[in-house]
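Build the 3D complex.
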Amino acid sequence: MAFHGAWAIIQAATPLEGEDQYLVTLAVASQDTTAFGELIRRHQSQVRNFLRKLAADPSEADDLAQEAFLHAWDKLQTYSGRGSFIGWLLKVAYTTFLQSKRKSKRYAEVLDEAGYVAQLESRSYTQNSDEVSDLDKLLAVLTQEERAVMVMSYACGLSHREIGEATGLPVGTVKSVIFRGKEKIRKSFDIKDHQHG
Amino acid sequence: MTSKIINMAEKLKDAEDRLLESMFQSEQIADDGFSHRVVTHVRRRLWIQRLALPVAMLIGGAIAIKPITQLVIAASKLLTVVPQSVRDVPMDWIPQMQSVAFGATLTQTVVLGAMLLAAGVLGMRMLVE
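Done.
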């Protein structure tokens, strides 16, 4: 009886063929790039969408996504399998985005010091007025952190705990960031009216 | 139990949440060779990592071969200059190996080999890192 119980636990803990966890194990254990390729194919859309909402420029977002997947390959053995794989991937993507932001900020500072007009930082979350969608307007009222948390929650469907793990924020802070973001959106766009009309 | 309650509370979404979800929803982005590009990049990096150590050892060996030969020749010449009294110094400077039933020359060789191996391993680890 006890044996059957233990066997059931082992079976439940063993990732099934085709699951993300199984592909991660394959990729880590035998450096299997085909398994990693399958993981990319499954999740590239969500990661690229996430970064497009943060970076505004789609080509820059795609470059960041490529960089994020390369980072993911390097750190694949650190994925414990506890949370969802997409949650872990978005964490890597968000870190990559923040690093690139920091780099471009430093670059802009160097240009500033050298007397150039820093155009990099002025490229904020604004696009040509005729290209601006509802979502772009909505994202423009949010800070970078609020944007990341809201996108993870509403576009990627991550739980508060997963968002906390991805952003390094406590769950309570995640909830308050979402609340603040919703308040801003509500004030700026009068969501209740939009809902009824 | 508490986490289950939290999860339940999270799942209880109001109309506003559903509206926000629909606004944040984006279309699927087609792969269009994206995954292939990343995998190619990863494979290239793997090859570079695999080749880096042997290539570095080859280049290092090629660079070091001449000075090492010169050093060995110079050392052998130096041995003829060293006075006999110095050459006859007892080999008991390696305290732990004294009890081992090897001859002094063999002990010396083993210790030297171990030291070289340790240095080599350290060097290789530094190269890999």
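Chain A has two domains: 16-79+91-124, 128-197.
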